[in-house]
Design goal:
387 residues, alpha/beta, Rossmann fold, Dihydrodipicolinate Reductase, domain 2, nine-stranded mixed β-sheet, six-stranded parallel β-sheet, 12 helices, Gfo/Idh/MocA family oxidoreductase, oxidoreductase activity, NAD(P)-bd_dom_sf, nucleotide binding, GFO_IDH_MocA-like_dom
Length: 387
């Protein structure tokens, strides 16, 4: 048993010293809820200065920075991402794109076209076509574009990838993944998450992208080939889902549940489901089935990119069928901060993007494929043009 667990050990990385002699100049595009995590993270970085913020709603960015304790900081405010990026006196090194989903692509592309590095919140965007244009802008710019998948920095997610790479599971041929919330349609800050014009996609993109990334990253992100998808909005369209705001039901224009059967290169089948609301505590654990072993990853009550308990490997040792429990690992630090730090380090060292767009392009193509298949009522082929 000990020898098996030893195969998955990793030597702890030494903490790197941060050179704060030159501060990176950061702008924030969109000052809604997720921007709080970005600003909090940047505030903990000694080599960062937040110098600008943009929001379409007059006064919102100023009120946001005041709330974040930066009201007295030397920050300039702009009514749009273009106005901020066009002000060359800012000398921006990077921006965080924290807008609603439908503005992810235009804001990111414009920043890249103007030679600015981008940390883009998840989901990457709404459609495959948008994702392709983002990747093309990144390639042409030569700048760093990293996508906001902080669960990658969780030690348990790293362990999952090491288990697969160790070969103990053999060839993986079937994956079941997903998650959700019994009740969890995100409307405490208004309706931008649930309206078609702003959100574009619902649970499918909001938390489904995390679930997909967990398993796709573990197996090396094979190219998606076909998708048969389904989506529904039974809870989102129900006024009883919004105590105090029944009118939100009329604005709901995305999915609150989605499921799909996805074929990947290499003969891998991906069985997927995700929910903002359902009459279950979970749609099931994540399962990886391989020719030499299987892996079960316990679900969580409210899916947020983590695991719900010790992973279990089902395999054979000396002809006996056995189970190896992988203890839950502690992550030394805040994964959101690690996401930001890795992005900043890539800028300063001229390194590569920590969460590369080439991978998340496949993630986005699957999400878009599910939505399109659901609307057409049939299987669709995923076609991704050359970047």
């Amino acid at each position: 048993m000990g020898n098996i667990l030893d195969k998955f050990k990793e030597v702890p990385q030494e903490k790197k010293e941060i050179d704060a002699s030159r501060k990176l100049r950061i702008g924030i595009i969109g000052t809604g809820w997720i921007a709080e995590a970005h600003v909090d993270g940047y505030k903990r970085m000694p080599d960062v200065e937040i110098v600008a913020a943009a929001d379409l709603i007059p006064g919102k960015a100023e009120a946001f920075m005041e709330r974040m304790g930066l009201g007295d900081a030397d920050i300039k405010y702009y009514p749009s991402h273009k106005a901020m990026i066009d002000d060359k006196s800012l000398n921006l090194d990077a921006v965080s794109v924290c807008t609603y989903n439908c503005q992810h692509a235009p804001c990111t592309i414009y920043a890249l076209e103007n030679g600015i590095n981008v940390l883009l919140e998840k989901p990457m965007c709404v459609t495959t076509e948008e994702a392709v244009e983002i990747c093309r802008a990144e390639k042409k710019s030569g700048k760093i574009l990293s996508i906001g998948f902080q669960p990658r920095f969780d030690e348990n997610m790293k362990m999952l990838k090491r288990i697969v790479e160790s070969g103990v599971l053999g060839k993986i041929y079937y994956i079941q993944t997903g998650g959700g919330r019994r009740r969890g349609i995100p409307t405490p800050f208004g309706t931008t998450f649930i309206e078609k014009e702003t959100g574009g996609i619902g649970a499918l993109g909001d938390i489904g992208c995390y679930s997909l990334d967990m398993v796709l990253n573990a197996i090396g992100y094979p190219k998606p080939l076909t998708v048969t998808g389904y989506k529904s909005d039974f809870f989102g369209k129900n006024p009883e889902s919004y105590p105090g705001h029944p009118e939100y039901a009329e604005k709901f224009g995305v999915d609150d549940f989605a499921a799909a059967f996805i074929r990947l290169e290499g003969g891998v089948i991906l069985d997927f489901r995700i929910a903002w609301a359902m009459n279950l505590d979970t749609p099931g654990d994540t399962i990886l089935m391989g020719t030499e072993g299987g892996l079960r990853i316990p679900s969580t009550e409210c899916w947020n990119g983590s695991i719900g308990g010790p992973m279990t490997i089902y395999h054979e040792v000396g002809g006996a069928q056995v189970e190896t429990k992988i203890p839950v690992m502690n992550t030394n630090g805040n994964v959101f901060d690690m996401k930001i730090r890795s992005f900043l380090d890539a800028i300063k060292t001229g390194g590569t993007a920590p969460i590369p767009s080439s991978q998340i392009l496949y993630n986005q193509a699957i999400i878009d494929g599910i939505a399109k298949s659901a609307e057409l009522g049939r299987e669709v082929t995923i076609e991704i043009p050359e970047i």
